[in-house]
Design brief:
The strands form two sheets. This protein has a two-stranded antiparallel sheet. A two-stranded antiparallel ribbon has the order 3-4. By secondary structure, it is mostly helical. The radius of gyration is 20 Å and the shape is globular. It is built from 15 helices and four strands.
Length: 342
């Protein structure tokens, strides 16, 4: 396998890691108004992700850095084209992170209410807009070639808000919501656990229907693609994983449900990447303007150096993250949270 292709899939793996791990963080934040009956409940929900949410977000930073180093043209074109959407995501992530740290430092209900709203909307916007962005990557974008050999995005934010893009955003939003609800059930006991399981069962049905519609639409759009069978296989595995996760949650097997939801996210994103391959961006203006992997990649020496760095550092990162989750593996309860408050 050529290094350009290898790094295309490495970036994909890093993004999958981000959406799997930060995905349940988003889901927990979205669940605040649905499961948080009082301040103790809301503190319990936030504490389920308190030790790991910032670690999960580092996957996005690493993915962005690798994208910039391995495919600078892809990075430049995508970030300029998605500028406003990415700015909204950044603002949402900042408000969400600040709220985790400051909601408990004020006095009075208004203070905590405002930060709870920031957590909720800061958890809704990123998966929604990320889903819109990735769906548009799979569908194709109005990009053209410039005189200097680079690529230029000729659309606006409204160009991204097309029916297929919005369906992709809704799909990722629902998957992360379900993923977060299952994580809450996995990390809590008592009424909170049962409430999260019941809500995950209801939301899961909608997620399966919307997700199936998005994956079928993706397949239909790429019937003439060289990677059609890979798209179909990835989509089928994502659908099976979603259904498996719903059944496991329904039977009270939160661990298997969480694993299945993680697999569903991974296979759904793999379907998107296979819809892109062997390009990085499809041009809806003229296929000749599409951005190929080889045409947007860095030099061979740069990719070789990055490969050696990844070989030595990635196992350390994975080991540290696994250790963190093992240390904070215990379930939480309302009584524990209430006791800490005093």
């Amino acid at each position: 396998m050529e290094l350009t292709t290898l790094w295309f899939f490495i970036v994909g793996v890093l993004l999958i890691g981000y959406f799997v791990l930060d995905g349940f963080d988003f889901g927990v934040g979205i669940s605040l108004p649905f499961l948080g009956k009082d301040d103790t409940d809301r503190r319990l929900l936030i504490n389920t992700i308190g030790p790991v949410w910032d670690l999960n977000e580092t996957w996005l930073i690493v993915a962005g850095a690798c994208l910039f180093a391995a495919f600078p043209e892809w990075y430049a074109t995508m970030f300029s084209g998605f500028y406003l959407a990415l700015l909204l995501i950044l603002v949402a992530l900042i408000l969400r992170g600040v709220s985790f740290e400051y909601r408990h430092q004020g006095k009075g209900r208004n203070w905590t209410r405002w930060f709870d709203q920031f957590i909720f909307w800061g958890s809704v916007l990123p998966p929604l807009l990320w889903g819109v962005a990735f769906a548009n990557l799979a569908q194709g974008l109005p990009i053209s070639r410039m005189d200097n050999g680079g690529w230029l995005y000729e659309g606006t934010l409204l160009t991204l808000l097309n029916p297929y893009g919005l369906l992709g955003g809704l799909t990722l939003l629902l998957i992360t919501f379900t993923h977060g609800l299952v994580f809450v059930a996995l990390k809590t006991v008592g009424d909170m656990r049962e409430s999260a399981r019941a809500l995950a069962t209801k939301v899961g049905v909608v997620t399966i229907v919307v997700g199936a519609a998005f994956l079928i639409w993706t397949i239909v759009q790429h019937l003439e693609s060289e990677t059609l069978w890979a798209i179909i296989a990835s989509s089928a595995l994502a659908a099976v994983a979603l259904i498996w996760g719903w059944l496991a949650n329904f039977r009270g097997r939160e661990g298997w449900a969480f694993t299945a939801n993680a697999a569903a996210i991974a296979f759904a994103l793999l379907a998107i990447f296979m819809a892109l391959f062997p390009n990085l961006m499809h041009s809806s203006l003229d296929p000749a303007f599409s951005m190929s992997i080889e045409g947007a990649a860095s030099s061979q020496k740069t990719l070789e150096l990055m490969t050696w760095v990844a070989v030595f550092t990635l196992p350390l990162v994975l080991a540290y993250q696994a250790w963190t989750y093992w240390i904070f593996r215990k379930r939480l309860s309302r009584e524990t949270v209430a006791a800490v408050a005093h």
